[in-house]
Write a structure and sequence with these properties.
By secondary structure, this protein is an alpha/beta fold. It contains 11 helices and 13 strands. It starts with a helix and ends in a 17-residue tail after the last helix. Bound molecules: glutamic acid. Glutamic acid binds next to helix 7 and strand 11.
């Protein structure tokens, strides 16, 4: 009993301290534990208003860029056991970097899980993000996007013999998605009765599907196709897409110079055949049907 009460006091004291600390943090424009809003404030406050601060100049003068990608999405952003990187997003990132004057040897890839992307850009931990990152109005409050460079659609991945044939068939089933993703948000908005389990990355969901701990995984079809190809014969895509996901290149809020330069790189990548080749090489083997390139909207 007494031990519990002591613990309670300690917890209360810790909570009070956390409150005090976060209070100080936002006064300094330096708190990032709380989420996007605070770190955005930190970025524009610390960066002198953000106006003159562009990664285009940084890339040119240093020959280096730190690019946020996924590490666990086969076909898109994957860190291989030998430490090398592969995927459509990786190729897109390398192409854009080259256009900004940065060779492959000057790129540092940093893992940016879905829930950490706005924060990583907000506090300038990364210079840009190429990570199946959907352009949304909410995210645009914290981030500037270039693109889109690809449009995917939310779908479901299930075991080969599953009876789930559409998102309407998820009653009493356990669905897995990722914290901070549009995929998880869409389920909460559109299918509020579905039991949703949120993990940090899609590979965690796929492992849970494999073990039978959950019944379905939901995110963009192109991501799910990559996992299905990784485990031939085990899973299938349901094939009832229920959203449009416009993949943008995430940039520091207000870096319009980078937005123009990255848009120009995307247009060149599409017109010189690289875009199609990157998709054929990385996404084609999963059987995913390669769509037409999208129009650039973020300018
Ligand atoms: N494209 C969606 C998003 O940006 C889902 C994929 C992901 O989480 O990266 O949230």
């Amino acid at each position: 009993m007494i031990r519990f009460r002591t613990l309670g006091v300690v917890v209360a004291a810790a909570a009070a301290m956390a409150l005090t600390l976060s209070g100080c943090g936002s006064d300094n424009g330096n708190g990032n534990a709380g989420g996007d809003q605070t770190s955005t404030a930190a970025a524009s406050g610390g960066g002198g208003g953000g106006g003159g601060d562009s990664i285009v100049d940084k890339a040119k003068s240093s020959g280096k860029l730190t690019i946020g990608v996924k590490f666990d999405q086969p076909g898109l952003g994957l860190k291989k056991p030998d430490g090398s990187f592969a995927g459509f997003d990786i190729d897109v990132a390398r192409y854009i970097a080259k256009e900004l004057g940065v060779e492959e040897s000057g790129i540092t890839f940093k893992e940016t899980p879905s829930a950490q992307r706005e924060t990583a850009l907000g506090n300038h931990e990364v210079d840009m993000i190429v990570a199946t990152y959907s352009i949304t109005d909410k995210r645009k409050e914290a981030v500037t996007f270039a693109g889109p460079y690809f449009i995917a659609h939310q779908d479901l991945l299930v075991k080969k013999d599953s009876d789930i044939t559409s998102p309407d068939k998820l009653a009493n089933k356990l669905l897995c998605s990722v914290t901070g993703s549009t995929s998880a948000q869409k389920v909460k908005d559109k299918y509020p009765d579905v039991q949703l389990k949120e993990y940090g990355g899609y590979s965690d969901c796929v492992n849970a599907l494999k073990s039978g701990a959950i019944d379905a995984v939901t995110t963009d079809d192109v991501i799910l196709a990559g996992y299905a190809a990784q485990y031939p014969g085990e899973f299938k895509l349901v094939g009832e897409p229920f959203s449009d996901e416009n993949y943008g290149v995430g940039l520091w809020k207000g870096d319009t110079k980078a937005q123009s330069a990255v848009n120009a790189a995307i247009e060149k990548m599409q017109s010189d055949g690289s875009w199609k080749k990157f998709l054929d090489d990385n996404v084609g083997p999963s059987g995913y049907e390669i769509p037409d390139p999208p129009e650039i909207t973020e300018k």
